[in-house]
Design a protein that fits this description.
By secondary structure, this protein is an all-alpha fold. The chain has 20 helices and four strands. The strands form two sheets. Strands 1-2 form a two-stranded antiparallel sheet.
């Protein structure tokens, strides 16, 4: 069964690459085949497969889609784009600022939320400066995915590490008198700016646009978006969480409530038909694709593939610390390019804890930080390696743009290599 699921998983990714426009249909079919095979063989049960769906991400995605739709419809992104352009000497500076801003915001709130909130501004800026929005939105997505690992509240994997290793928010900055994971991630982020500059070098044209006097329709969507961000940041520091099906859905619940409030105001103001707005707001293709992908990855986990990977890492522990650290970092990069990093990190944390206990001269944080860097940053290699990438491409598809795989690889590959290599070296120098 294990080899059948691995083969099915490989076929799915081959089909996604070959037929990106039909990725939802193909992933849905292969996920159904995997589920039926696992249930018939008795490898797992229906309950476990349902629990493999990240309901927090699904709730958050649909909730923010509604809020962002109202935000976009208010014309506020156009106004922000005008203000942003008026301060920039050229189009390249505007693009770099957007990508950098995505990383900064993502260090405080979830990557998916970051992409959805900044995508409308990215689209508006792209139209104003007459460049393709495809690389701009991809840049926003990979940047958000990069800096999610910088703080305790930036990404689910960071939260998991903080809980497992009993790390506080401040210990992501300074730990045991040494520079912590934040600085390794930020070094990677800093070094990716020249990468973005090289990728967009042809867009380095002077801006001499006639700015429009954009009048926003209403302010309440902007207020709701700001409140949403504030609540997401605040919730990260509150120890009490809303748990359903064994999952923390606090962020998803916040986004859903804000979306409902937005729709109620929309109805009261008689701004249009609420059902039509809901239909236009939610990208059902992207939501379904993520659900199918979560289920497919769940079958991979249930048949023991991730456990086999962790056992392989454990077998390297008695050979060489440097070899073990290197394999953990770059092995995690490759694995997380295809498998969701949450179940992978959850499986690897106790393995690394055991490995570190057997090597008293080695700091466990060397291996913990290596795991986090590889597993988080590796998602930028492929279009489906991180939820933020899937959502970013979904935004572009909804706007009528076709994103080719080479469009993503052109940005994702160099971005990942630079970020991972710099973080890999800095963590080794400080913690080895």
């Amino acid at each position: 069964m294990k080899y059948f699921i691995i083969a099915l998983f490989a076929i799915t990714f081959a089909l996604i690459i070959a037929m990106p426009k039909r990725k939802t249909l193909t992933t849905g079919i292969t996920a159904l085949v995997a589920v039926v095979a696992c249930l018939i063989s008795g490898v797992t049960n229906f309950k476990e497969l349902v629990y493999s769906i990240d309901f927090n991400v699904v709730l958050m995605l649909t909730g923010i889609m509604v809020t962002v739709y109202l935000f976009t419809d208010s014309l506020m992104p156009n106004k922000i784009a005008d203000k942003l352009i008026s301060k920039m000497p050229n189009s390249l500076s505007a693009i770099i600022l957007l990508v950098a801003l995505s990383g900064i915001v993502s260090a405080l709130i979830d990557n998916v939320a970051t992409v959805l909130m900044l995508a409308p501004i990215g689209l508006a800026v792209s139209k104003k400066i007459n460049v393709s929005p495809i690389p701009v939105i991809i840049g926003i997505a990979v940047s958000s995915n990069l800096q999610g690992a910088a703080t305790l509240v930036g990404d689910t994997t960071s939260v998991m590490l903080g809980s497992f290793a009993d790390m506080s928010f401040l210990e992501f900055f300074i730990l045991d008198g040494k520079l912590s994971i934040f600085w390794a991630v930020e070094l990677g982020a800093l070094l990716t700016i020249p990468v973005i500059a090289i990728i967009f070098r042809k867009e380095n044209k002077k801006l001499s646009l006639q700015l429009e006097n954009v009048k926003t329709k209403s302010l309440y969507p902007s207020v709701l978006l700001i409140v949403n961000i504030a609540l997401l940041v605040s919730a990260s520091f509150i120890p009490y969480k809303l748990v359903v099906f064994g999952q923390d859905i606090t962020n998803g619940f916040i986004c859903a409530v804000i979306a409902i409030i937005g729709l109620i105001i929309f109805i009261l103001k008689k701004s249009g038909k609420p059902l039509t707005a809901l239909k236009n707001a939610i990208d059902y293709q992207t939501v379904l694709f993520l659900v199918f992908l979560f289920i497919l990855v769940g079958t991979v986990e249930q048949v023991g593939v991730i456990k086999d990977i962790s056992n392989f890492f454990a077998s390297l522990g008695n050979k060489s610390v440097f070899l073990l650290y290197t394999v953990i970092v770059f092995g995690s990069v490759i694995i997380s390019a295809f498998i969701d990093n949450i179940p992978y990190v959850a499986t690897m944390l106790p393995v690394i804890s055991t490995l570190a206990a057997s090597m008293p001269t080695v700091s466990p944080y060397l291996l913990y930080f290596g795991l986090l860097c590889g597993a988080t940053l590796g998602g930028n290699i492929t279009p489906v390696g991180a939820s933020a990438n899937v959502v970013g491409i979904g935004v572009l598809n909804k706007e009528g743009y076709t994103v080719r795989n080479k469009d993503f690889f052109k940005i994702g590959l160099p971005f990942t290599l630079v970020a991972v290599l710099s973080a890999y070296l800095l963590v080794w120098i400080i913690w080895a």
